[in-house]
Amino acid sequence: MEKSIVVDVFGDMACFSRPECKVERLTYPVPTPSAVRGIFSAIYSKPAEFYWQVRRIEVMKPIRYMNIMRNEVKCKVQKKPKLVEEERTQRNAQMLRDVYYRITADIIKRKSFSGTYEQLAAQAENRISNGKCYFQL
After folding, report:
1. Which pLDDT tens digit goes with each residue over 47-69?
2. CA nearest neighbour of 122 among 130, 112, 110, 134
């Protein structure tokens, strides 16, 4: 029996960058579906066997914004060292603070996968319940 996987995502700060803002970071109020797929893939991912289909993004706490000033280095890393003080610039960022979302997604098996949905769901739920991830965003 196939059922949706639910994950609570929360944190002190978040930024889901808007693509039209190249230099200054502005955030969407909720994570985009592609960002949510990235969150689920960070927990459990086997691209040859399945993919995540986002079903619902619920906002559990009120949306609150904050603005921060951050330092960036203007140049790319090169073989010759650079003085950071000469290459530093300050940028503004609009961030979210004290975020909490409940995200629902389904595991969609690929046709080439010979295993069962239950195997994939059990592994995903095990990783989620134990707080495991392949990488952190």
Report:
1. 989 999 999 999 999 999 999 99
2. 130
